[in-house]
Structures are given as structure tokens and as C-alpha cells.
Design brief:
This protein is α/β, with parallel strands linked by helices and 362 residues long. The chain is built from eleven helices and 14 strands. β12, α8 and β13 form a beta-alpha-beta unit.
């Protein structure tokens, strides 16, 4: 009997050839003048189309969502047309692909925003280092979003989802994780608001459900995935407190009201074993709460990925770094072939080196 990771899976109405998912990976290869993808990016994803599902690198929903150099967007007609190169390349190989929709919020810098302040739930400086082509810069105190700013960002996510369908994607993933804008609303450490978007966990999570309710007007709900990181601590200026896990319990339980394609959760990025109020076993906790398709990631091997599915704690496993140097990761896992190691110094550099030049096993 084949290992579970290698079996087919029905993702609502999309059949995946296996349960090995390519996780979103920022690679810094987009055209920096218009934040468009290129032929080189299309080739990169084509090479990795053996994954049951590819989730693209985070892609900005607006100019104000940018926080890193050479990252693609999905808010303009030109960007949408360019993404068609990627979806065609993957579909021609029989693959499936979702785009991750992204807004970094306070983790941006005026350098990327034509001198404007980043947007955030509250005017709280994350005291984080921002990487730019001019070198590292200190983060700034962001602008607290007005109600009209919140509505505008929701609208931007909706337009991006519509553009994604136009570009030929099989679906979208809402990036509400890792300390970026939506996550900033959820967390008391970054949300000091006293209106309907702050205070109680219901209010801090409100933006997520308003966003999905609007998005389903332009895209089927079963073509939407959601990414969350409930145990993010000392990562992108996020901290865990007594409200963190109850907030995610509420958020994830309420997501059961939507027939989403999947919920994508991360195990802790840092050691939280001694962090008060943390949850070190994310898949185990939330398999008992979430009733839909559950995807888990962070540090899994082929064996541990099969085990977490066998144990019933996840349906799909996302792999990030292994896909960088192993475009044929699925075939290597099938054959038990050793994995190649990536060139870390080439993670975010321009060009094909360390990007599309990793050989496949023949």
C-alpha cells in the first residue's frame, strides 16, 4: 500500500495527484519595476509541477502591501497577464496551483511605499529590521488604519482574487499568518484598537470573516484556502500571550462555517516549549477543532509527513525548503532518493542560479 503522501486527494472539486504540497516561498525574482512575474518564474514553477498542489510565493494585493524587493503583485492588469505564463506552464504539466494573496502591513517601510507610512491595525512600531536593496533599515511607526482603509484593503484582496481567476489559478490562499497584516489584527501585541476591529477576540478576527464574505462574491468558497500560524513567537515581531490560543481557537472554529478548500497551519517556527500560553502541537490541537481539509507545514520529512497523515492529524503536508533544490521532490520521495541541498546564498538573488538550475534525478 503506498505511503499516504503519495496518494491522490480530492480538494473539494480539485483532484490532486498526491498530498505533497509546495509551500509558499519568497524568492525575489519578480520584475522590480512593475512587480510582475517573468518567463524565468514560470519555468521555476513548471519544474515543480509534480507537487499535488503548488502555492505560490506571497503576492501583493496592492502597492501598499509590498515589503520585500522583487516580489510579485496581482493587483494590476499587467501583473494578471504575466501570471498566465505561470498557470499555463503548471497546467500544461498536469499540475495544480493556488496563488497566495499577501499584504505585509507594518512590516513594510516607506522605502517601498513612495515615502508613505505602512498600514497597520494600530500605530505600533514592530521594531523590526526591514531588508531593502539599499541595505537594512529600521522599521517605522505605521499609520493606524481608518475604517475606510480597512474597507479598501478588503476590496483589494477581493480584486486580487478576481484577478487570480482571470490569470487561470485553481484558487487562492489568504495569507493571514507570520506577522503580516491580517495576523496583526488578530494579535493583542499589534492591535490596540477600541472600535469594532479591536478589543475582543471576535472583533480582532472580524476582518478575516468580512474579507471572506466579500471574496466569495467573486470566487467560489471551495477555491479559497487560509494560512494561519497560531504559535508564532519572536518571529516578525509577534508574541504569544494568554489570548493567543483562545483567539485562534475561535478563529479556526468559525472557519468551519465556510466550505474552504483547506486550512493551512504552521507548526511553531521557534521553540515555544517554555513559552507560557503557547501550543507546541498545532496539527494535533486543531484537527480536533477544524472539520475541513487540514494542511500542515514546517520541518516535515517524508516519514514524518506520512506519519502525521496516518495519525489523522492532517490531510496534506506542505514542504518549503526541500522544493528549492529538488524540483522533482515528489519523484525523489517515491524513489527514496537523497535530497539535494539548496544554495542559501541564492535564495533571493536575481537570475537562474540557485533557482532553476537544480538538476532532477534521471
Amino acid at each position: 500500500m503506498p505511503e499516504k503522501l503519495l496518494t491522490k486527494f480530492n480538494l473539494r472539486d480539485i483532484e490532486l495527484s498526491n498530498r505533497i504540497i509546495m509551500a509558499p516561498l519568497t524568492r525575489g525574482r519578480a520584475d522590480n519595476t512593475e512587480n510582475k512575474v517573468t518567463d524565468l518564474i514560470a519555468e521555476y514553477y513548471r519544474q515543480r509541477s509534480g507537487a499535488g498542489l503548488i502555492i505560490t510565493e506571497g503576492s501583493q494585493v496592492s502597492k501598499m502591501g509590498v515589503g520585500y524587493a522583487n516580489t510579485p503583485g496581482i493587483y494590476s492588469k499587467e501583473q494578471t497577464e504575466a501570471w498566465k505564463l505561470v498557470t499555463k506552464a503548471v497546467h500544461d504539466e498536469g499540475g495544480r496551483i493556488f496563488i497566495q494573496l499577501w499584504h505585509v502591513g507594518r512590516l513594510s517601510h516607506p522605502y517601498y511605499l513612495n515615502g508613505e507610512l505602512p498600514l497597520a491595525p494600530s500605530a505600533i512600531n514592530p521594531n523590526h529590521t526591514i531588508r531593502t536593496p539599499e541595505g537594512e533599515k529600521s522599521s517605522v511607526t505605521p499609520k493606524e488604519m481608518s475604517l475606510s482603509d480597512i474597507k479598501k484593503v478588503i476590496d483589494e484582496f477581493v480584486v486580487a482574487a478576481s484577478n487570480a481567476m482571470e490569470a487561470g489559478f485553481d484558487g487562492v490562499e489568504i495569507h493571514s499568518s507570520n506577522g503580516y497584516l491580517l495576523h496583526q489584527f488578530f494579535a493583542p501585541c499589534s492591535n490596540f484598537r477600541t472600535d469594532n476591529y479591536g478589543g475582543s477576540k471576535e472583533n480582532r478576527c472580524r476582518i478575516m470573516f468580512e474579507l471572506i464574505d466579500e471574496m466569495v462574491k467573486v470566487i467560489p468558497v471551495n477555491r479559497i484556502g487560509v494560512r494561519l500560524n497560531p504559535s508564532s513567537h519572536n518571529y516578525h515581531a509577534m508574541t504569544i500571550d494568554e489570548e493567543t490560543i483562545p483567539t485562534f481557537d475561535y478563529l479556526i472554529n468559525k472557519l468551519n462555517e465556510y466550505d474552504l478548500a483547506y486550512l493551512h497551519l504552521s507548526e511553531p517556527f521557534t521553540d515555544v516549549s517554555d513559552v507560557p500560553y503557547s501550543e507546541p502541537n498545532i496539527a494535533k490541537r486543531y484537527r480536533g477543532i477544524y472539520k475541513g481539509n487540514l494542511m500542515i507545514n514546517n520541518g516535515f520529512s517524508f516519514d514524518s509527513g506520512n506519519k502525521i497523515i496516518d495519525d489523522g492529524f492532517a490531510d496534506l503536508v506542505a514542504f518549503g525548503v526541500p522544493f528549492i533544490a529538488n524540483p522533482d521532490l515528489v519523484n525523489r520521495m517515491k524513489a527514496g532518493t537523497p535530497l539535494a541541498e539548496p544554495k542559501r546564498e541564492k535564495y533571493y538573488t536575481p537570475g537562474a542560479e540557485g533557482y532553476t538550475d537544480y538538476p532532477e534525478v534521471t
